[in-house]
Specification:
homoheptamer; alpha+beta; 3-stranded antiparallel β-sheet; 9 strands; about 50% helix
């Protein structure tokens, strides 16, 4: 009943398995040697050119070149490895179609990554060093690749985002940004007087803070809050300086209100007393 | 055991790889030369015509022409590159079907982008300079393309939205907009008197503010709030001026209430005191 | 090594490209001429008939006819253009299958739009001028098309909704609407007395306001609120007049309560005082 | 260079187009005539039988018959129209496969609608006049069709729900419903006494209100609220009368508590006073 | 030009259509007769056996048998009807493939329903009369079918849930349930004393209430609330009695606290008074 | 016209149907006999071995063996049943392809279940008796199967989770757990003193409670609350004992604070009084 | 009628089934022997090398090697098992295609896992011991595998995350992290003075706490709170020490404010008293 085991030519099988293993190992070693040489060569080339170009763009170009080199290599060596297996294991296994199916499905995700990555690079949506929001994560771009984009989050976390996950790219490092401060005044205070004080602060800050490109200006009564009338101030600032400008504006506006006796009101409530 | 390495004709292989590399590089260089020439030519043509046409429409048309030119070029050169690889690498790799599959999947996303982009342009849903909301992002359109639409967000962020992500287009720059202000009065105040004061403010503003197209009018008691009776005022304004009109209305209404002794009430609460 | 460039017959290629370009341009021009003539003819026909028919329906029919005409034309001319490319570029490019695949995917979305649009029109779910909610947007229908439906939002925004995005259609312009007002009375007030006062207001309004079709009626104690007993009044009104009726009812009910000394209570809270 | 235009037999083409147009128009007219006759015939038949049957079921059956008749007709005439186009346009256009693909995709959604609709009708999940919740919309069924179900929302809106959107059907018009009233008493009040008073109210209402099928009964202490002990009363009522019963119960319970000096407590808060 | 109409053999066509109609009607009538006979026979058989078996299981088995019978019948008669159409309409319509496609898509949903339904029945996840939560709806099972499961919601609504919508089944009628009551005591009260009082209540209830299987027990300090220390009591009860047990426990615990002078505290707040 | 009925060989048909029915019934009976015998045999074997092995692992292995046996059986008998139908009904029905399609779709879900289940078992992600969270449900595992996993929820509910719904498995019964208690102190209290008192409590509990593996320790000021400074205490406990340890810690910390006069503060609010 | 049973060669069938069973068991036993030997060999090799390499990297490499070995083995043995079934059962069952389909679907998920896992390892996104957030779970990596990644959650739970569920990887163990503390001061306090005190604390902590890499610094007025002006302090810390640094900063800042009489304000409210 167990004579089916004899049907398999064990010597032949072991030879084949061993043969494959040696070839695979040889190719893997070769892969790492070639990759290491190529990677260093590319880095050297770009290190020389760094002086002539913009730093962020140089890094992006280097990262792309490295990526294309790596995937080209991976593709070629994958070809070698498949060519080895194709003549050995597939004769062993009847279900060769399953392997093909599996590779097809695997390739699908990878192709999605590469195609998206290709257009991100082609349309220069992202440069290394940009502050961006992609796939619900925001951070500073550390590396743009054909398959993965690496972001350094504000809290220090390193996010690896596969390019297929990137749909909308929101790039916060392209052109001037807007600073916006809302400040509340009491319903009893005079809107005109408060606006005038704020506008004076705005004009002083506009001179003092060289990160401001346009404004700041008081644009008017933004809302009727529950306990305060909300005034809005906006300015256009240099890229990346919007938060600093907002903080400056907040401090200056608070101090101007203090000096002019205008109150930033606490929540109010009218109490009607009854006795139980 | 390692004689399988001899099966590969190394000289031939290297020649082939080198050959391919040179052709690809030649084509890529050619691509950038042709693209650069074409792009400038198109820009020149449209710069001349800018005087005769509406600016936003001229920019849109230029951006479309540039797009079609770029993708036409990309398509042709991709054809060249594929024709090179087809006769070389695919003979090297048995798994040519995988390449085809991969390109198919890659093309799918691209075609979705282009088809959607085509109809956005055909139906003139978006012009450069319009303020729109698409795919959850809102901003001013900087460029409409066949593959990607670029929006400049209110805070200065540049959004790259692939057209496939655009389903509904909400265009805020087509025709008059509505200004809407809700204001609360005390439950003790007379609704008729408050309405009359607000209506007078409305009529004055309607004359003063040339951005108002229709109204403003007090339309009545919108809601019974927890501590106030809410009155609603609406107006029709010129496009893009709705927020300025609302701010004007808020300031004028607050000042009119102050003059007439009508209170915008704080939250009220009835307290019933018990002793523990 | 670069002799592969000679393999391509450059003269022939350029002639072919030029030839295609001229034909495409000729067809595109022809398309716009025919479209313009057809569109005006259809408008003229419907302008004459507008007197005889209901305006909204006439506009809907015109918009449909225009749509069918446009897509019929587009279809025919697309046929011409494909027939041109089919005999030229596809011989140039080996990857003709990719083009077919791409068109198939592109067509899929378009067909979804047209099929959905066809049934929306066939079942008359939407007329021009109706106030509807589709795909999470609500507004007044400006145009119903085979591919796209245009809504004018309440705030003036123009929404372009591809028909494939439309699943449920909620049409707010078909038949009478309901006005609903909830009003709170104090836990100390007599429910019967308050109901009686409100019912009197309802009966007066029912006579005064010709937009009311049925009711209004006080239907009873809807809820025990934290600080008030909530009474509900509902009425059936003419289409589009529900909000005006609600505003009328709110004003009248508030005034009737004021006259009869029934309080709309503020939030209550029982305070138990302890000393620290 | 433009002699390719001569390749097309213009006379023949125009004749063909005209020919198709006439046939299509003839078929469309025929379609509307047959549909109109059939629709009236079906209505007549059902009007006669309305006396003998339950009204809601009769309307449902009529609506189904109308639907099947319409789609049968549409199917036949679509067959005629396709047979016309098949012998003409498809010879003109090489891309006949695209048409087939498109129809396939279009049919998919339609078939989903019809199959779902078929089972909704077969299993009698919905009758005309039922109050149901489907696909996140609730309302009274105005028409059940093979493709679309029409609901009249509570606020008067007419919802068109494609059957494919209907997964769960929640039918609120099948059998008795439950009325549920939660009422809070003070932590100081006696639970037994309050329960007894509420139970007396329940027994009185059970006799007075003929819409009540079972109960109402006080089932006990449902929760410890922040400021009150919550008692729950439930009853079984005739279909559609649950809200009226709840309103009756609320009024009666409030009045009984007033008579017996049991308080429905306001939110409580313990205040500990410190001085700054 | 209209002679194409002659191409169709009208007499033959009408005969065919009539012929099909008669056969379809005959088959439909036959279907209803056979179904009615079979349904009654199955009911009779199960009515006899009801005495010998558990009621819920008997109903489930009857409902399954009815289902299998119905779908078997439907399947056979569908076969007859398709065989009729296959030889007639499909010769009329060229697009037979569309019909096949449509049926395929339709079958997909149906098969999903039946396969899921089959495993629900095989693994006895649901019996008639069980209180379950499936597909976001909870209620008592009225009928388990191969295609649809009917639930009677707590408020009386009848939910029709297609089996494909059922992923997780949460069956609340299998084995003992847990009763859980959280009760707050003041930060000033002694935790040990309160625990002791509650434990005495628990022990008394454990004896009195025969629906309790295990416990109840005070398990300790569950949380530090804003104004109270939360103690938790849990018990194991007979199936379906958990809510009644919880209500009993709440009442008893409240009364025990009243007798022992332990306060269930209201929200506390410390007030620090400043003068403006 | 009705002579088509004669075309069907009724006697033959009935014989066939009867024949099939008998075979199906015979196979079903055989299935239940074999299943019952096999199930008991497996249980017996595992009952004997239970003494030698860990109980949870023994139950898991038994449940897997039962599962594999059941599905193996089901597979074989399904083969018999299909072989019967294949030679009979499919000759009756032309649409055999539909059956194949249907089975394919049905198999898809089943295969997803089995493959996921296989890896859950292979990687020992779940044992019977583990407390896990899968597919949004948490509970104690009652049975792990190839198709379905049964969880007993904390409230007693029995969840049937198809394995395909299981993506992440969160197993709460593998290794030590963490106990975490946050406690607030007044802004007026000394952080060092409070930390010292808590640390003393921690050290005492660490000795007393043998379920604690590491800690507990006060790790510092976790947050500035609105009215309190939040201190955090964490400990490592034996598996399943984390809640008991947290309750112990809470009680002990509260009592230590009481003894040392450190207040767990109520919400604070500063009141500024104005007169209307 | 039952003679169809004779058609099956029972003896032959049983022999076949037995034969298969024995082979399968033999292969399964062989699998476990080989796996056990291989696993131990790999562990031994890595244990020796642990001294020379970084611990986390060594563990990752070992875990990968184990994984590849296991799946390689599984693949080979699955080949044996399928080869057995292919020649036996498939001749028994007509529906061999179903098995193929099923395996294809099963393989799809597995391939997704392995491809994603491959790139996670290739790009070194995760090492054993890293603190990461993947697929909505966060924890310390216990094992990275080709199919599953195991995380130990903060509360002790062991999460098994299939690699296909991993899209974005957020690795919190790569480089320095940021500590961030927001602290509120009263609207009455001087911003400059408070900033100065905080900055002094920052400078002291910067010296004392060696886990701080950069800063901490007071960056300014982050927001106007309802009752406080919010100041923000940020620092760069060694990886994993950010929470400890934040706790240190909070304690030191609180104590510095206490010493300098700067208040961290409670929520404020302005009360306007009316009498009912």
């Amino acid at each position: 009943m167990l004579d089916w085991i004899d049907d398999i030519n064990w010597t032949d099988l072991l030879l084949q398995v061993g043969n494959i293993a040696i070839r695979v190992i040889a190719i893997v070693i070769l892969y790492f040697i070639v990759k290491s040489i190529g990677t260093r060569a590319i880095r050297k080339v770009f290190n020389r050119k760094q002086d002539e170009m913009n730093l962020g763009r140089a890094k992006t170009l280097e990262s792309i070149t490295q990526n294309i080199f790596t995937y080209f290599l991976l593709f070629i060596f994958a070809g070698f490895i498949f060519s080895i297996f194709q003549f050995d294991i597939t004769t062993l296994l009847a279900g060769a179609g399953i392997v093909g199916l599996a590779i097809g499905f695997g390739a699908q995700g990878l192709v999605s990554d590469v195609v998206t990555g290709f257009f991100i690079l082609l349309e220069q949506q992202i440069d290394v060093g940009d502050y961006v929001t992609v796939a619900g994560k925001d951070g500073v771009v550390e590396e743009v690749g054909l398959r993965t984009t690496k972001l350094r989050g504000m809290d220090g976390t390193l996010h690896f985002v596969p390019n297929r996950e990137i749909t909308n790219v929101s790039n916060h490092s392209r052109g001037n940004m807007r600073a916006l401060v809302d400040i509340g005044i009491s319903y009893d205070d005079d809107i005109d007087k408060a606006t005038q004080i704020l506008q004076q602060v705005c004009e002083r800050i506009a001179v003092e803070d060289e990160n401001i490109v346009e404004g700041p200006d008081v644009i008017g009564v933004q809302a009727f809050g529950a306990s305060e009338v909300v005034l809005r101030v906006i300015a256009k600032t240099k890229n990346g300086e919007q938060w600093a400008v907002e903080r400056n504006l907040r401090k200056a506006m608070k101090e101007a209100f203090d000096q002019n006796g205008i109150e930033i009101p606490f929540p109010h409530q009218v109490h009607i007393n009854k006795n139980a």
